[in-house]
Every structure is written in C-alpha cells, then in structure tokens.
Amino acid sequence: MAEERPPQEESLRATRDGQDADQDRVIAELRAQVAQLEDRWRRAVAELDNFRKRVAGESERQRAAERARVAAEWLPVLDNLDLALEHASADPGAIVEGVRAVREQALGVLARLGFPRRDDEGLTFDPARHEAVAAIPTSDAPAGTVVRVIRPGYGDEERQLRPASVVVATGAQ
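Above: the chain sequence. Below: its structure as tokens.
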C-alpha cells in the first residue's frame, strides 16, 4: 500500500523542488556569465599581447630606418675623406683645405641631425651645457664666464649630444 503524505508535506516538497530548480537555473546562468567573462578576458589578453608585438615590431622598424638615415648622412663625409687620402701626396695646402671642407661637411651633418656645434666662448657657465675642466683667474672676463672651449658642445636647447668642456673665469686676483 502506498504511503500517503499529508498535503502540507507535499506542498513543502513542491516548494523545495521549485526552489532547487530556481537555484539550479540561477547557478547555470551565473556559470554561463563567468564563462563568457573568462572568454572576453582571454580575448582581451590575447589582443593586448598582439598589440605589444605590433608596437615592438614597429619600433624596431623605426629604429632601423633612423639608423639607416643617419648612416646615409655620413656617407658623403666618408667619400670625401677617401678622396683626401687618395691625394695625400699632393700639395699640403690643398690637403689642409680638403680636410677643412670635410670638417664643415661633418658639422653640417650634425646640424641636420639636430645637434649643431655651439660656440660657448664668452657665455656664462651653465652646468647643464658645460663641463668645467679648469678655472683661471683673469681680469679679461667676469667670474663665471667661459673663457676657452677645450672640447665643443653639440646640441640645442632641447637636446644635447655632448656638453662643452670649458675653462671658466674666476675673476681677477
């Protein structure tokens, strides 16, 4: 004989079954959302990795192009130095003039690359632009003035390739 349950117990069981079904549905929906979010996250990570690789490749191509541009700027200077060496047995005055011309050409290359040679003699010493290698007492210039450039500096206000090595006046003694 089948056991009969009271109607209240059947009602509770049906409610629990309904709640379990709702919870299972909610859990399934949440799992689907988690899976979707994980998929989106993995795609975003992969996209970021691809972006990094593209940027690294482009940066390397730009560096290579810039190196080639700089090297191409120097080729005429080297060509003229080779010509000067070919004529080394010629008149010494002509050789000196040729070397001066090549020097001017090299200075032009540096200027086109954004690093012109600076003439710092007579300027006030600036530790950002100058490297003091000596200080001398003199009455010819105010204290703190560059009186002699030992090694010239190259660059402009924004970019400096090399600071000038200078002798600075300390004032008369």
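The chain has two helices and five strands.
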